[in-house]
Amino acid sequence: MDIAVAGEHVKDATSFHFPFGYHVELPMLDCGSLRLGAVDLPLLGHIPAVEIPLRLQLTKFMVLELIVAVLMLLIFIPLAWRLRGGRPPEGRLVTFFDVILCYIRDQVARPAIGKHEADRYLPFLWTLFFFILFCNLMGLLPWAGSPTGTLSVTGALAVLTFAMVVGAGIQEHGLLGYVKSLVPHMELKGVLGIILKLMLWLIEFAGLCIKHAVLAVRLMANMFAGHLVLAVILSFIAAVANFWLILWFGVTIASVAGQIALMMLELFVAFLQAYIFTFLAALFIGMSVHAH
Predict the structure, then answer these.
(1) Residues 168, 114: contact at Cβ < 8 Å?
(2) CB atoms near residue 260 (< 10 Å)
(3) Running DSSP on this structure, what letter comes out for residue 109?
(4) CB-based contact 6:235 (threshold 8 Å)
């Protein structure tokens, strides 16, 4: 099994594959079709009627994301009820999540955004962190997968973060004030000042978009690469299946040992990447709220 074949095991799919050839095909939701009537346009002429099918193919990552969302609801709604009114956490699981929530609040959100403004954006940052974390951990389960290993998921998270950053800036400074805040203050007047400020604004806005695009690519690349390495190492067992038994046994022991070691590393990376994404999101929100 080469790298290209091993990569199929870390991609999205329309079915769940289990051992012994058993797999579950995911359904396609058929919502009918949307018919657009014919129209005559001055420049384009006559455009005939078209019928657009409305179909949604469920995929493995969609199902896993739904499982993550339900899991978060099952964990954090009871947790919020147990901690309401400032009651101290009781139990190991409640304490574990409470420590993480407090750490994100005190060591990530408030230093990056500000003590008074951070609490407004904490629900978004908490949701972002745990959604990414749980999606990352899904990749460690047998026959599952990590939704954050695909650009469509990380790209959607980056778009939501971008909307939150821009929305925070507009809420704090107003639309015109936020647009002006993207350009540093310069004592330039006349046509030259207008041209330079417009150029700087375009550069700063492009940089803002690029920073959020990098958020998506960084998370996707780290998660995809980690699971790809695990799949390749495990494929060594199948690659030597037709060789001597002693060779197959040695490769199997080495591959399984490598898998265990790398899965421990992947467990660390799952937390690390969720933290990095959340930290950068808080940093971008802070830069938008406190424009210089």
Answers:
(1) no
(2) 9
(3) I
(4) yes
Element (H, E) at 131: helix 118-138
Q: Which residues of 172-211 are buried (b: 16+ CB within 10 A; e: fewer)?
A: bbeeeebeebbbeeeeeeeeeeeeebeeeeeeeeeebeeb
pLDDT in tens, 262-284: 777 788 888 999 999 999 999 99
Q: Structure pTM?
A: 0.82
Instruction: Kindly compute the dihedral angle of the four CA atoms of residues 125, 130, 136, 137, in this order, to the nearest 10 degrees.
Output: 160
Say if residue 105 is exposed, middle or buried (CB neighbours under 10 Å; 0-12, 13-18, 19+). middle
Residue 57: DSSP 8-state: E
Task: Indicate if the pLDDT at residue 51 is higher than 80.
Answer: no
By CB atoms closer than 10 A (0-12, 13-18, 19+), residue 154 is buried
- Residue 241, judged by CB atoms within 10 A of its CB (0-12, 13-18, 19+), counts as exposed
